[in-house]
Amino acid sequence: MHFKAVAVDDDQSALSLALSELKKNNAVSEAIGFTSPKEALNYIKDHFVPVVFLDIRMPELDGLTLAERILEINPRTNIIFITT
Prior knowledge:
The chain is α/β, with parallel strands linked by helices. The protein has helices at residues 12-24, 37-46, 63-73, and strands at 3-8, 28-34, 51-55, 78-82.
């Protein structure tokens, strides 16, 4: 089974590393990254994403609050927290 994944981290280098690792996984059909939690949320509103990797500490919108909002949109989304 292949799935789309989204990674959200305000640190571009950490985001690049997460995306690089996700793209190595044969099960991931597409890995999309956002440095802006609000942009990620807007994307997730319009696209079903089964797995989202979130940084916890972000200035604009923290990862815990973002996770709550994502789960309000789709409770089947799997949230994985990442931090550097």
